[in-house]
Amino acid sequence: MKIIDTHCDALLKLQVTNRKFMFQEGPLNYIDSDKLDTNFQRLQQGGVKVQFFAIFVYPEIPTDEKWQHALEQIDLFYTQVIGNNPAMKHIKKWEEIDELKEGEIGAVLTLEGADAFGNDLAKLRHLYRAGVLSIGLTWNNANLCADGAGEPRGGGLTLLGKEVVKLNNENRIFTDVSHLSAASFWDVIELAHFPIASHSNARALCDHPRNLDDGQIKAMFAKNGLIDVVFCLEFIKKDISNVTIADLIKHIDHLCSLGGVRNVGIGSDFDGISAYIKDLENASKFQNLINELQKHYTESEVEGFAFRNFLEHRPGIVVAT
């Protein structure tokens, strides 16, 4: 069964390794490096049809260097992910997913944290033109747009942040709520036409600030938003010593119990996590999740979780049902 995965950090891993080994071993090979959870071969083996690639700049990077770090990751996307792999197709418009041929994998650029463009909306428009189709206003920190889930102040969107959400709406871009503070989340829910939680779980099952509580989940579903479950162990259960696929499916069960059977998807966070669910250690293992889901849900429902729910919720796309 084909998979659409809305979050991985392969670009950051490629960048960090390139910088670290610039004068030593050389860069990772995106095609088959065993250090990449989402390398090309593993995406093929796991049945991934569309993979989202996040641009993420560490908050500790000096402000005047952040844009350069973002550009480096975009360049790696074009040269290593797309450039070296003819079967990887850059998705710059949502309709292009439907044009993928057998054996081709769609690649989508996203931004995790507005730190990269600061308060420069010209840079944001450049990201749109580069093909970024989903914008998360924060990581866990605060920035000029909003407070993140790890910011003690717990503030909401700034005027700049609200302007970014409006620009996302105009450009048919997802606004990602996964890393937002509670106040920022509710500001986005009020403004965003296309909300997504690209990699979050249910806080009722695992009380972590990166997860969504039941009120937030219901609000997402009321806005026809997507919530894509994440494989990070700390977001699945308190005791991370033995996390199984069944533990992850409990979060899907909970989301469905709140009315989200057609609003749930997958946002693995591969290449951004270092500890793994048993039998779900990289993208090649995706079908293990599918096989387990098929024991609990109908084939149509599992197809929804794997890819169809996303296709039906793409910004500006009307799908006949």
Automatic annotation (TrEMBL):
Native species: Planococcus shixiaomingii
SUPFAM superfamilies: Metallo-dependent hydrolases
Keyword DNA-binding carried by entry: no
Protein name: Dipeptidase
Enzyme nomenclature, EC number: 3.4.13.19
Annotated transmembrane regions: none
UniProt GO molecular function: dipeptidase activity
Signal sequence, renumbered to the chain: none
